[in-house]
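Take one protein record:
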Amino acid sequence: MSDAHTRRVREQFGGSAAAYVTSPLHAAGEDLDRLRAWGAARRAERMLDVATGGGHTALAFAGIARRVVAYDLTEPMLAAARGHIRGRGAANVSFVAGDATALPFGDGAFDVVTCRTAAHHFPDVSAFVRQIHRVLRPGGSLLLQDILGHDDAAANAFILEVERRRDPSHVRSYRRAEWKAFLRAAGLTVMEEHLIWKIREWDEWTGRMRMTTEARRDLEAFVRQSSEACRAAFDFRLTPDRVVSFNDRQILLRADRD
């Protein structure tokens, strides 16, 4: 990850750490339940959660794994995750800071690696996936969740602009075929997949990134001025006065190391 992008991520998320701990979309849901079930079925003993954010995934796995490592680039986020997880009584979670494309762990160190709704921030997804392959034991599993790129080019360009205006550290979201190509090239085979929709309440979603009033006003104007087809692709709900919500389609993948 470049120094400039690293600074951008840290600036964007350092001040939002507490909001990610309390975010209901991150704290629970069908997506987290499914990842945990996949992990339990794989009998994960040693687990790594990359880009742990508020620590919700690491906490969910603390009940089924012997040892969990919560890993994040942003120190304030890691500190918030530590407070949250320790406050819930989980004593088998350790906390490590670092880059997702340069994991400071030995080869084959983990049975399961999770990465939940974070990879769209990574400038080099291929390098990230290669690192996951390296730190997984043979037969180990990557449990991945991320925003799914749209197959329609105009809709994809629209939501990318929305995401980047709200969060300048957003790189891009990848389509299903792109994810499978990344994983296959690194020696990981997709064994299970699932799609979900997540409703983004506009006020919470923009507020979590501490957007200025002016930036939010400009973003809402961009949404209103965009085509109906692009808005409909993400089920944007508008009133005459405000943007209410939209839907994110997200992909969940279990990919095993060959």
In short: The domain at 3-150+169-200+247-257 is CATH 3.40.50.150 (Rossmann fold). The first strand starts at residue 46 and ends at 50. The chain has one domain: 3-150+169-200+247-257. The chain has a mean pLDDT of 90.
